[in-house]
Amino acid sequence: MDSLIECVPNFSEGRNPDTIDKIANAIASVDSSRVLDIHSDADHNRTVITFVCSPANVGDAAFLATQAAAAEIDLNHHTGEHPRVGATDVIPLIPVVGVTKKDCIEVAHALASRISDELGIPTYLYGEAALVERNRTLRDIRRGGFEKLRQAIRGSDRRPDFGPCKLHPTAGATAVGVRSYLVAYNVLLDTRDVSEAMAIAVQIRESEGGVKGVQAMGFNVRGKAQVSTNLTDVGAVNIQLVYREIAKLAASTGTSILGSEIVGLAPRVALEGLDAQDIGLPGRIPDYVLEDRISG
Questions:
Q1: Nearest partner of 218 among 246, 181, 244, judged by Cα
Q2: pLDDT by residue (tens digit) across 81-91?
Q3: Closest to 62 (Cα-Cα) out of 100, 109, 15, 103
Q4: How many alpha carbons fall within 13 Å on the CB side of residue 173?
């Protein structure tokens, strides 16, 4: 296909396979849409679906997925490790081939407007699609989660870009944005002490003077501590450097790494020259490469 946009929506459901299937099937029902990867985690209670689609149809696929999630997920009964404000929590759009970020921004604005108009879900525009600076980062949009946003959305500093200043009663709010490629890379530690993962996250994240292009948090996953990272500058961040830094910091407290995972897929440039075992991954590097999935 001459033109492709990658879309990586995150849904607040990681435990019910029937719900996940309905959402994935909604995406796949759209012409030219291809689901490349589905990554679900019961502890985070979250599913990340990676798909590619033509610019003309990607908004329809994302909308139908949001509609399916709203019909199936009630955030009033949702618990999980990952911060969230919506049944469809976030919809990032990434240019792949034959499109620009400007094209993706146009899609994002139209999609956010449609979600609020047709589903009654307030929407925020973030990243390079942001209309106002206060909504540029997901951290600011998600601050306090679904529960706190119920009241906070009424304030002038938390109002959505589209829709009323009140949450959908069960589906919450949704953030739609445009960004460059990133790698969601998580490292599992051989300890139950989540404070160790949190301390490592603070030391490696760029905002605290750590590694450039790294965002990081600590979570409890499968009874172990997990350092969860987003590598936001794939051309500059060396994923093996991140792995080794986490290993060094863990060893300083008597802990070791059990393994790692990539959530979704990664662009080839982020993984070139590496073996999976170099960064704690199971399988082979080609299993994780976006371009290989697209061409496969």
A1: 246
A2: 999 999 999 99
A3: 109
A4: 36
pLDDT of residue 1: 65
pLDDT for the residue 106: 98
**Token pair listed for 120:** 């009654």
- The structure's pTM equals 0.96
Dist CA 187 CA 291 (whole Å): 24
Q: How many CA atoms lie within 13 A of 76 on its CB side?
A: 5
Structure tokens at 132: 């106002």
Q: For 199, phi and psi rounded to 5 degrees?
A: -65, -40
Which letter, b or e, does each residue of 187-196 get, where b requires 16 or more Cβ atoms within 10 Å of its Cβ? Answer: bbbebeebeb
**Tens of pLDDT, residues 255-292:** 999 999 999 999 999 999 999 999 999 999 999 999 99
Q: Where in the sequence numbering do the catalytic residues fall?
A: 82
Tell which residue, 20, 48, 14, 40, has the closest CA to residue 183: 48
**One-letter amino acid of 122:** P
| Contact predicate 236/212, CB 8 Å | yes
Q: Enumerate the β-bridge partners of residue 217.
A: 228
In the 8-state DSSP scheme, what is residue 233?
A: -
Residue 293 corresponds to which tokens in the numbers above? Answer: 């999935």
**Cα torsion through 211, 216, 222, 223, rounded to 10:** 90
Q: How many helices (H) and strands (E) does the chain have?
A: 9, 11
Angle at which helix 58-72 crosses helix 101-119, to 10 degrees, equals: 40
The predicted model gives 155-167 an average pLDDT of: 95
- State phi, psi for 23 to the nearest 5 degrees: -65, -45
Q: How far apart are CA 70 and CA 161, in angstroms?
A: 19
- The reported pLDDT for the residue numbered 235 is 84
Rounded to the nearest integer, the mean pLDDT of the chain is: 97
- Rounded CA gap, 107 and 53, in Å? 12
**Rounded mean pLDDT, 10-32:** 98
